[in-house]
Every structure is written in structure tokens, then in C-alpha cells.
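Run log, item B.
One chain of 240 residues. Sequence copied directly from the ordering sheet:
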Amino acid sequence: MKDKNKVLGVIGGMGPLATQLFYKMMIENTQAHRDQEHINMVILNHATMPDRTQAIMDDELDDLLTRLTEDAETLEKSGADYIAIPCNTCHVLIDELQEKTSLPLVNMIKAAARQIEETHGKGARVGIMATDGTVKMGLYQKECEARGLVPIIPSPENQKRVMKIIYDGIKDGGPIDYDDFETVETEFRDQECDCVIMACTELSCFKEQYELSDYFVDAMEAMAKEAIVLCDKKLRRNDK
């Protein structure tokens, strides 16, 4: 007899640390009292996926789309009902990928922007911390504007600091100069941002590591919560 519980498929490995954090978010945000009440998941840790920002900068997205499509097919054959991709930059291809799979994709960008609109209302000023690729393609800028939010991106100097945190710090495992982060934060606050989207899954890891406040909206956590609801589970309410 087929299990009636929904299955979430995950195209992960971008990066691996972010994928394990996404899995943790799914567990911690699901209202469950025993193993059997959690969500069945199939996690494909595709660590050798081409660098997404580099693919955007080089205008070479065809190979990336091919690999994502193959992974979606693998997850469909594995019994998944939905697919989540814990990688913001990959969402540059989410519409094209959706056309190539019958499984609904959980859109991280829409989930994060919707959460901000519900929390802060239209007209809110939203800082965006993301990779060069995500910023260049305007993924969050377009979604924020569509929802009546005002997107703010870092200055070129501070965008370099964001990339340093993502690539030299989280991905490479090197030391992180917290002063870099505070400099970026100061710029957003000086521009009267109501909140800042952590629009890179490595920055989700950074937020957890440094226990940042809710001023920093975790896009990956917003996607996790949406995936939980789509899989017919209830969200755990945290009092903290």
C-alpha cells in the first residue's frame, strides 16, 4: 500500500553545509512529537553542481539547467511530491525548471518576499544580501517590487564584503571578519531598511552561527516553512 504522506524532494549540495541546515530547519519547524509525524524527504546532495554565480557571470546556464532537470527526474522517480532547492542563485532557472518537471517547485524567493510583506507591509524597505549572481539577475529586487516592497542592494564595496563572507568564510571554511558584516549592516540601517533578506543559503548558515536577530530574514527558513505546509504538516510555534 502506498504511503499517503507527502514526500519532499531536495536538490541540495549547493553548498552541503546549507543543505544540512535546511534539513534541520525542516525538523525544527515541523510540529511533531515522534518520528512518524515528521516529513518524509529524499535529499540529493549534488555537491558537484557547477557554481551558480559563475554560470550567470559567464552566461552559461544551459549545463546547470540540464543537471537540475536530471535531478528533478531522479526525485520524481523516488516518489517526491514537491521539490525544494536550498540555493537562492539557482532560482534564476526556476521557471525553466518548472516547465521540465511535473512536480511543483517550492519558490524560496517568493516565500521570503511574501513573509516580509505579511510582517512589514507594503512600502517596507528591504536590504538584500546575496551572491553577485543573485544580485545581477535581480531575483529579489523584482519579487520585492512586485509585492510593493522597496529593495536595497549593497554598494559595490559592501557587495565584495558579502561575497567574501559567502565564499571565503562559509564555503571555504576560512576565518570570517565580523567587521565586514557589521559594515554591510550599518549601510542597510543608514538607508532605513526595515529588514534584510539573507538571500544566500551560506548566509543562512552565518545567521545561525552568529545567532542574528529577526531583523535578518532567512530566505531558506521561509522556504522550509512553506514546504512543511505544502506537505500537510503544521508549523511548530516558537516562543523565542
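Observations after the first pass:
- The chain has a mean pLDDT of 95.
- The beta strands are 7-12, 40-45, 82-84, 105-106, 125-129, 150-152, 195-198, 216-218.
Flagged for discussion on Thursday.
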